[in-house]
Amino acid sequence: MSLSSKSNRKRILIADDEPDVLSLLALNLQRAGFDVLKAEDGEKALNLARTENPSMVVLDLMMPGLSGLEVAKQLKLQPATSRIPVLMLTAKADEVDRIVGLELGADDYVTKPFSPREIVLRVQSVLRRTEPATVVADQLSVGVIQVDRIRHEVRIAGESLDFTATEFKLLTVLMERCGRLQSREVLLNDVWGYESVIDTRTVDTHIRRLREKLGVAADLIETVRGFGYRMVAPSE
Amino acid sequence: MSLSSKSNRKRILIADDEPDVLSLLALNLQRAGFDVLKAEDGEKALNLARTENPSMVVLDLMMPGLSGLEVAKQLKLQPATSRIPVLMLTAKADEVDRIVGLELGADDYVTKPFSPREIVLRVQSVLRRTEPATVVADQLSVGVIQVDRIRHEVRIAGESLDFTATEFKLLTVLMERCGRLQSREVLLNDVWGYESVIDTRTVDTHIRRLREKLGVAADLIETVRGFGYRMVAPSE
DNA sequence: CGAGCTTGTTACGAGATTGTTACAGCTTGG
DNA sequence: CCAAGCTGTAACAATCTCGTAACAAGCTCG
């Protein structure tokens, strides 16, 4: 049932010993477009962080066994994992003071009770802060084309249109790299996924289908003969 | 339901030191149905934002005195204003990189030159995104469907109908988010609860039962292949 | 208890989606 | 202008998705 696309989505590792909290966070993060790795305890979290190279780690401070604090410390110790941002969940506000006193390696923290929405916002903002190169915008717009990735909605000149899963993905990839040439290989990789064994001509077919649906905005997808395709902003 | 004046229109605060830009934006936003507050500099913008409780703030990045960036930071610092969405106007695309590095609190940004129309679209989409049904109405109505949540009553074209608990919940969730796509996962989460371990196909079944009972209004529930379902207002 | 209702699961078929292929038209370089 | 190579287009088959119906388990209420 998943519209899976491992390649260019960010992986978030979350660790909490309460299954409910874990599921809730996972669901909301997935809904916000992240891939999620779940860990029920500190040991598992540490292992996953080392093997799966997540973009970010969300840790519950209080866990049986390895606490979130210890996991964070371990991560900071090794070069391979030392730069992974850490968002710490803490039960009480006054715990934070102690943590800060301990020179916690967390990039941000949230005190319980928190709303899942808040966590998602924090995760996004920490990612934005720590990875200036890749801004993840939910809202894309190029010329008359507007895309809301969260709602999976596309509007052409204000009018809502439906796209299939593949078309949608292809469109958003082109839009977020507007102005830059995308080779068929890159598109195959980022739209269809790493291990796909798909003919490059397939890209052409989907580009055609995209253009057909885009109607007046079809011109925004340029063909660069011999290389691939490029979305262009309309010249004013 | 009300044709009334100021009360239920959204207030947008715009700040720019160029009078021309300010007027142009104000005009277009008013035309789009918003109330507009104008500020010529950062200080005034900050004051208005604190006293007038706007739904959203549009800030020019470069202003004499307090810059848009500083205003945004100030807003984020205080709980009363920290949740107001910020749309930032920037002169050049490469300014954006610097902004991101500076931990911008903006929800979206637009680079100059921009069309007023584009700003209006952005404002609308940011508002759509950041305001997930703040009003909980007892009375819902979409097309010929009318729901009274207190009496637990549903009327289709005036005729009363019985719905089961699940059907009722599903219907109201769809109605309150009329026009917006709901994935099966979201529906499972919001109708069945997040700890439920239920197959996504179950959603399909209940959608079908809903449509069956809705009769003439069945068309109001759209299927968005590959993603989920959406309730639409019949006017479109 | 038991009939009837509610609800989640499952099977299946129609139809949509999608990758492939063939071919025609176009661009490019000589 | 021609030949070679790309790309646009259309058609096709494999696959996937969703609507439909049937079924079984659970629940309610007499």
Task: Give a topology summary.
2 copies of one chain form a homodimer.
Chain A: E1 11-15, H1 19-31, E2 35-39, H2 42-52, E3 56-60, H3 68-77, E4 86-90, H4 93-101, E5 108-111, H5 116-130, E6 139-142, E7 145-148, E8 153-156, E9 159-161, H6 165-176, E10 182-183, H7 184-192, H8 201-214, E11 221-224, E12 228-231
Parallel strand pairs in A: 1-2, 1-3, 3-4, 4-5
Antiparallel strand pairs in A: 6-7, 7-8, 8-9, 10-12, 11-12
The first copy, chain A, binds a DNA duplex (30 and 30 nucleotides) through α6 and α8.
List its traits.
homodimer; 236 residues; alpha/beta; Rossmann fold; Arc Repressor Mutant, subunit A; five-stranded parallel sheet; four-stranded antiparallel sheet; elongated; DNA-binding
